Every structure is written in C-alpha cells, then in structure tokens.
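Here is an idea for our session: we take a single protein and study its fold together. To get us started, please write out a protein record for me. Once you have written the record down, we can walk along the chain together.
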Amino acid sequence: MLKQERRRRRRIQARNGSITDGHSQPGERSTCSGPHLPEDIWCLIHSLMPLRDSARSACVSGTFLHSWRCRPILTFNEETLGTGVKILKIVILDYYKVNACRLNSWLESAIRPGIEEVTLLLSEKHRLEYIFPCSIFLDGCGNSIRYLHLSYCTLRPTVGFDYLRSLTKLHLFEVCITGDELGCLISNSFALEKLELRYCLELFCLKIPFWLERFSYLRIAECNKLQVIESTAPNLFTVEFFGEPVQLIFGESSQVKNLMLEYSFEPNAVSYAITKLPSIAPHLETLTLYSTCERVNAPMVADKFLHLKHLDIYIGDDDDEPVAFVYDYLSLVSFLDASPALESFSLSVDPDDMKHDSVFGDTSSIRQIPRHRHDRLKKVQVDGFFSAKSMFELICHIIETATSLESLMLDCIYGEETGGGTVRCSASKFSKCRRRSKRMILEAHKALSVINRYIVGRIPPAVKLSVGEPCSRCHAIDVELL
C-alpha cells in the first residue's frame, strides 16, 4: 500500500510538471532525476542561483529544499523584495548573529511607500544591541504602515516625528523606549486604534493625547516601572492592565467601558477597585479583577457603578508566607450593592490557596445583611466553590435577593471544564482530568455535600442550578464529612 501511494503521488507530480531528483525512493520511477552529486556541490549550485529561482526550485525539489535550508547568504534588495511588498515579517532567533548594518539595509529595501505591515521580532540578546532606525520611515515610507510590531530592540524617536500617519495598531515587546519617546512616536498617528506594550521597562509615564480620536484599546503588561497612565483620548473603551499598581487618570470625559486589572503580588486589588474605580471610570460596563493577594475584605461604599453589567473576580493567594487572614466572601455583596445594573457575576477561587472556616455544623447562625434587591442580576457562576462559611452565606444572599436570577452555576473543581455530568473527563479532549491536589479533591467533595445539603432546597423553581461535580473517575476519593 505504501509503494502504491508513493507511485500515485509521483504520477500526480509528473502531470503537474514537478521535478524529482536523486532523493527518489528505491523502486520508484523518477520523472527527472538529477545527477548523484555530493551535498556540498548541490549547496554551491543553489547558492549561485538568484534568490527567487532558488526559492522556486526548493518548492519542487527535495535536494534543493535541503540545500535551501543551508543557504548561508540571503541578499535582500529592490529586485528580490520587489516594489509591491505589503507585509514584511523578520524573525531572528537567539542563535542567529545579527549584523545591524545588513538588517538596516533589508528594512530600507522593503519599507517603501505602500507597505502596510512591519514585524521585526528579535531575540532577547539583541535588545540592547540593536537600535531600530526611525529614519527608514522618512520620505513617505512610513505613512502607509497600518501595523507595527517590534520586539527586543531600542527605539528612539525624537520630537517632530511625523511618519506613521496611517498607523492603526502598535505592539512593542521588551522595547527600550521612554514615555516621552513613545509620545513622539504616536502623537501624530491620528489613525491609531490599538496600543499594546509588554515588558517595556523604561516607561515611567504613559500619556495618550485627546486628539487621537480613534484610539479605543490599550493593553499594558509587566511594564514594572510605569507609575502613571493618563489618557484623554475621547473614545478609549477598553483597558487591560497587568503589573504593579499605577495611577489611572482617564479624564472627565472618560468613556472606558471595559477594564481588566491584575496586580502582580500587590494585595487588595478588589478593595482598590470598589473604592477608586467608580470615580476613575464611571461608565464601566464590564470589569474583570484578578487579585492574587487579598488581605482586607471588600468595604461598603457610597459611590456606584451605575452602568456596570458584567463583573468577574478572581481571588487567589500567591503569597508563600503563612497568613492567618480568612477572607470574607460575603463582603463581596458590597460590589453587588454598588452595581444596580449588574446582569452577570462570576467569582473564581482557588481553594488550594485559601484559608476558611467550614460551614459544616449549625447553619442557623449564618449571617444576614441588609437585603438590597438585585433585580437585574440574571447569571451567577462560581468556579472553585468550596465549603467556606462566608462563601455559603454569599450564595444564600444572592438566592434570596436576586429576584431576576435565571441560572446559578457552582463548580466544585477550580479551573476544570465541565461536561454537565459526573464524568468530567468525557468533556475533555484528553483521556483524563488535569492533575489536582488531594486537598482540592477532598474540598470538592465537601463542597458538593454543602450544595446537596444546604443549597439545593433554597433554589427557587425559576432558577436553573448547574453543579460541576468532582469527576467520578479522576477525582474519586473516600470522604468522611463532619
């Protein structure tokens, strides 16, 4: 069967005019066999061919394909690159040697009026060695560029830089550039819509001017020296921030509607959000918070998120030091009370990280707080539901006060996809569930018992309850509940 398949492929290649060579398999008929020459001779022949012919021959010849991979010199000039290049992407890995003059020559040859996308991805060792030549954008060469993506280099635009007028998206990864220099780069890019900055460690202050009317998306990740983000752009709708806490200034006319915050090893992101964000971003509609270290409970506040519809909160604990603090999940009711338009609420908790007081025992002493009606809340989901008393109290409060509640999802296994049944691994593309600690599995069984004993009977008939149970195969364990 294998030989028949090979012969069939050869017949197809012969009909299409493909070239076969000395690499044909024994017993196969070659349509155009080449001479049996040493490999270094083939490589020499290939290296003497024009780049375009060399690439074409590699597409149809196994021998030339092999020597193409060994080709020591590639010459990029106006003839080889042509004059109609729309997209240029250069990726240089760590083990490559970069000649700055030659790389600049490649860029100068390719970046001509009409080019739309430029991507230069260097490796980490080149970050301090290579300075990207801003001069290549002169004479109208940069005014057609819509997307610019640079990594591991230095970028030093100066005052008066005015050569990226069509730029809509800018992505800088581990690029050495100051806040003032970034301002020079984008201040005249009136078409700019998206800006993504990752690990740009020379940034202390980022300012987005008000005249960038199309600017709508900002993503900052691990720019750990950044202290201030100030934007007066009138149509900035989405901000995603990951890193050390910064001062956010969005201006009186802020239209930020979607905000994601994740602080690196800094405590109390949830408390900060409820106390500060209503005034910073009053038009928020979607808020996502990642708190890896929460050391105070969410306080009651007077300010409101009047437009907030979707709230997602992750609470974990990445602090290796032992902490006696037990987080009060019932305090999250203050977020619900501050969000009268809230429609969906998602809470994710890693039980492996959290300390808690168990609900098992007398449930008649559960706390009740003033019952504000959450008459727009329709969907609630808890990923990592466990047997903490305050978690149980939070769910009871929601059941009693969310008069429009339609669905309640309680997943006992944190971060595991559920198939809607007891056999979770049947819903996964893998043959078994992800590895979990014995502590998490034991806690999942306890959480399931809490749901069955104390929650199921409280669910109104109009509410659909979905429960993510421990996997009956991967999470089986002997559990003795108190």
Observations:
- The first strand starts at residue 87 and ends at 91.
- Confidence is low (pLDDT under 50) at residues 11-33.
- Residues 438-455 form the longest helix (18 residues).
- The two ends are 64 Å apart (CA to CA).
